[in-house]
Amino acid sequence: MVTRQTRLPALLRMAAAAAFAALAAGVSAQVAPGSAFPPLAAAGLTGGSLPQTAGKVLLVDFWASWCAPCKASFPVYSQLNAAYADRGLVIVAVSVDESPGAYSAFVARLKPGFATLHDSKQALVKEVQVPTMPTSYLVDRSGKVRFMHPGFHGEQTERELRGEIEALLAEKAPAP
Amino acid sequence: MRNPRIRFAVLALLGAAAALFSGCSTTAAVRVRPWERGTLADDTMNPDRDPLGSAMIEHVNFSREAASGGRGVGGSGCGCN
Predict the structure, then answer these.
(1) Across the A/B interface, how many CB contacts are shorter than 8 Å?
(2) How far is A134 from chain B, CA to nearest CA, in Å?
(3) Across the interface, do A125 and B14 touch by the CB < 8 Å criterion?
(4) For the whole model, what pTM was predicted?
(5) What are phi and psi of B73, to 5 degrees?
(6) Above 80 in pLDDT, residue A8?
(7) What is the sign, positive or negative, of the torsion defined by CA atoms of A173, A112, A134, B24?
């Protein structure tokens, strides 16, 4: 028989369970080396077309028009794209700008030689949980994040990226 | 819980608990995330964007209040890298 004394603790237990569920749902795990990168095709990116990434080495860079190191990184990514695209490197630069106009103006001014897309709802960046701006992720041919670069530190980052890209390009593509 | 007062009290308690825990479940109120700093990075958020104006205010403070310094606290920027 359900009495007033037994129903009240049950309600409190349900409230506590709901609260912990909300807490767990609100904290998403950060994408880091070893984990799979979220599929770009399902991220709702706008502002351009997504290149073919299956079986390729993928460099995903999160940037914003208000971020000075992001601006400094674009010429380097253009050089990397020119050097390694033929061997299987795909660079996708994802803007987290809240304003579509800021995204378009930045791309029009810098004219990057690689794919740029706009995460206008900031859904992908929230899922990835980048630690700082900019942050780039090197994803191997199987879709797993292998290297992560928080921030852009000029020649040091470029040197590290070149070594890592060479290593990933030398790996064989996984069997279909 | 046939007593309406007790039922109201329990519902109010549950509502307060839900509001409290939902606030804890998002860290947005605790820390501005790296991708949310566009407004902070705007030039208008820089208190020292007008060096001449800052120097004049400093001069007025010094002349009238005999006070100087204490204006070197940074409050803007994107916090990049």
Answers:
(1) 78
(2) 7
(3) no
(4) 0.75
(5) -90, 120
(6) no
(7) negative
